[in-house]
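Try this one yourself first.
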């Protein structure tokens, strides 16, 4: 039985372009995978582990094999629980709006929690990093209200999809499909572009 996790990094609910596109993907995905388990993980409604002093030291102690204190164990166990929840799925759908040329901070927080040595990646002093999530697949919805690839830098620079695409590869997830909608709030043609993106999302969901 296939398990898909939709991780939403948008706090805008029904007004969110990225969530609406994810819904178009999921509608046809459900039709194509009637037995699949589909779960939603709204990062804005999640009490993610604090990656403060105790968790940071626990991370380093776990890396070096140093025993953890009680406080560090508590922090580290929350990290492990978060990663295990994420890792229990085979398919992922991410709703990722652009914020200030990059990711919403809640998604970066999530990435910093689950990106741990021995869990999401392994590291070797000769060969570097190796992602441990090979075999999983992901679809990512990227949206932006002002930025567009053909616009000059004065309208934004993409540290958004470039970073997240790299992080997926870093995790070992190389089977990745993208749904992109750059609404461009100054473009009168945004409605047609929106419809085109929703059709693309529906096609991708059916064949995912």
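Now uncover the answer:
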């Amino acid at each position: 039985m296939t398990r898909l996790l939709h991780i939403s990094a948008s706090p805008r609910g029904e007004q969110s372009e990225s969530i609406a596109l994810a819904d178009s993907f999921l509608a046809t995905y459900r039709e194509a995978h009637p037995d699949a388990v589909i779960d939603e993980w709204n990062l804005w409604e999640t009490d993610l582990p604090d990656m403060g002093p105790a968790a940071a030291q626990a991370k380093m102690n776990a890396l070096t094999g140093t025993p953890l204190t009680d406080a560090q164990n508590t922090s580290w166990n929350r990290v492990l629980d978060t990663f295990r929840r994420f890792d229990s799925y085979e398919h992922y759908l991410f709703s990722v709006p652009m914020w200030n040329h990059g990711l919403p901070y809640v998604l970066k927080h999530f990435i910093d929690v689950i990106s741990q040595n021995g869990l999401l990646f392994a590291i070797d002093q000769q060969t570097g990093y190796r992602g441990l999530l090979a075999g999983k697949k992901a679809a990512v919805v990227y949206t932006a209200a002002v930025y567009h690839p053909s616009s000059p830098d004065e309208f934004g620079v993409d540290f958004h999809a470039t970073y997240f695409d790299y992080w997926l590869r870093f995790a070992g997830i190389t089977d990745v499909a993208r749904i992109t909608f750059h609404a461009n709030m100054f473009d009168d043609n945004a409605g047609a572009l929106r419809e085109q993106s929703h059709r693309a999302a529906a096609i991708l969901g059916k064949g995912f």
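Discussion: The first strand starts at residue 3 and ends at 8. The radius of gyration is 18 Å.
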